[in-house]
Amino acid sequence: MSRPKVIIVDDDRDTREMLTLALELEGFEVSQAANGLRLISAMHVDRPDVILLDVMMSWIDGFELCRAIKKNAGFTDIPVIFISARKSVEDERAGMEAGAIDYFPKPLDMDRLIARIREILDQRAAGLATPA
User: Fold this and answer.
1) Which of the four CATH numbers 3.40.50.2300, 3.90.550.10, 3.30.1140.32, 1.10.10.10 does domain 5-129 have?
2) How far is CA 23 from CA 51, 68, 91, 122, 126, in A?
3) Distance between CA atoms of 14 and 11, rounded to whole angstroms?
4) I want to staple 16 with a disulfide (CB 3.0 to 4.6 A). Which of 32, 59, 61, 107 is the partner?
5) β-strand partners of 29
6) Chain-centre distance of CA 108, in angstroms?
7) What is the model's pTM?
8) Closest to 42 (Cα-Cα) out of 78, 12, 14, 92
9) What are the pLDDT digits (tens) for 12-46?
10) Domain ranges in the chain?
C-alpha cells in the first residue's frame, strides 16, 4: 500500500518544513506549496489525500482557496484541514463554511493533528470499501 499523500500549503517556509518533518516521520508522503497557485498545479501532477491549508497567505487567502478547491469536481472530495494563527470562533466557522473538514490553531498540537489526519484517512478508506 502506498503512503498517504499530504500537501502543506503555507507561505511560511519554517512552518512547511516543520510539518513536513513531523509528517514524514509518521510515514506520510509530503509535498509543499508556498501559495494557492502552486497548490493547484501540484494537485494536477500528484493528487494529495489530505490538504493542510494556512488561512493567511499572499495572492489568495485559505478560505477562498478552499472554496475554489471544493468547486472543482476533480478535487471536491479531498479533505482540507486548516492550520492557522487565526484562532477565533468566527475564523473556525469561516473555515468550515468554506468546506474544510477541520481547523487547527497554531501553534499546532502535532499529535492531535496527526491523529486527525489518520482518522480522516481511515474513514475515507472504510467508506470506499463499502458497497454504494
Assistant:
1) 3.40.50.2300
2) 12, 25, 25, 16, 22
3) 9
4) 32
5) 5
6) 13
7) 0.94
8) 78
9) 999 999 999 999 999 999 999 999 989 988 998 89
10) 5-129
